[in-house]
Amino acid sequence: MTLSTRSLFCVLLFCACTIYARGGEERHAAFDQKIQLDLWGKNLVDAYNQITQRAGIDVRISPSYMRPEHFKSVKVYLAANSITARQAIEWLSRAIGCRYRIDGRTSVWLSGSYDWMKEEPDVLIPDQPVNSLMSSEEQASSFEMKLMELVKANSLFGERYFLRIEEERAGREEFTCKLVAVLPATLKKYLAESLELMTKRGAEIVAPPARVISPAETALLKSLGAKIVVRYRKRPLREVLADLSLQTGLNIAFDHTPFRERPLPEITLELGEVTAREALEKLAAEMGLGGCELDAPGCVWLTARPCNWGTTASREFQWEGMEVKAFACQELAAAMGGGKVLAHQIRRRIDRTHPELWHDVSTAAVYHEKSGNLIVVAPREIQEAVQGELFALREEFKQKLPTAGDAK
Fold first, then answer.
1. What is the pTM of this model?
2. What is the secondary structure of 129-195 as a DSSP string?
3. Higher pLDDT residue, 11 or 362?
4. Domain count along the chain
5. Which of 372, 373, 390 is nearest to 382 (CA)?
6. What CATH number corresponds to the domain at position 112?
């Protein structure tokens, strides 16, 4: 089954070139330069040496993720005539199953955890009153869980970091609730902005601005719809990918996970003249993979998970550059059965196009009862996607929302 051009266009609109939108402009120069990638059957030492030499980027691998003595035993199968250094790092991270974090202008860490966070200074939040942010019925423990959800306490916290709400008796039946925490400086900043937004009404839910498809996305649509000739009989996978790349102008890579225990297959595909989209779908099936995903402009990823032209999830750790926004959702939350339901629905809908985004400790979507706001910590393109999903939910639940006449 293939997507229509219209459906694929909609996916592209949601994709929004996520990989290229992250981070500040000042760090793009080295990572956005084009390089040739020739890592078919190479080991991990060859991989990081080639990217370092061709892009001038210092690629480092955290010893907590993999010890240096194991580097030569890890094989990767990646090739592209012209690809950005950032995309090469994306592909390498997926191939070996790790994450990465850009560290400055010309270096990157490959890692499997937040061990790099030890370099960030800790910040103390001493006895900050929070009674005004809690509804009259809300318990301190409940509000504490909400704040912990904002900073992903269960994923990150150990002996070094903590967050708690302490109660002090202010009278016979009155308590003063104070926030006490030790956090990495970046998380403290996002939490402080979130607390500020809990004191005011958030932005109204409006239709998201129309987005114009970029030239790169137009070129990708054109490439996928173009006719090519596919006639392969027991050909090596490398030869097939190289020929498809030559005919389509696309960079094509695949999920290595299924092939860690079995050899790469020889490919037999006698399709004749078909669209590039059909050819890639058939190739994924022939390899025993689940489908195709849209990657950065000019790139396609053949994925092991079932997928019909969704968006590839970036392996970059989300940390710096997040935006904190509040959306006024009190009426919508009531119509949907509560703020927790609303927040869950938003996270689930964003998961469709940006899988695993909410796993990062710097991202969150939490409903705050007293202000009636949905607090969202996420990159700018995700904030726009949340706005679109909230507008769609409001349209879906329009019949249950109060009207101007109800207020009289």
1. 0.81
2. E-GGGS-TT--HHHHHHHHHHHTTHHHH-SSS-EEEEEEEE-SSS-EEEEEEEEEEHHHHHHHHHHH
3. 362
4. 3
5. 390
6. 3.55.50.30
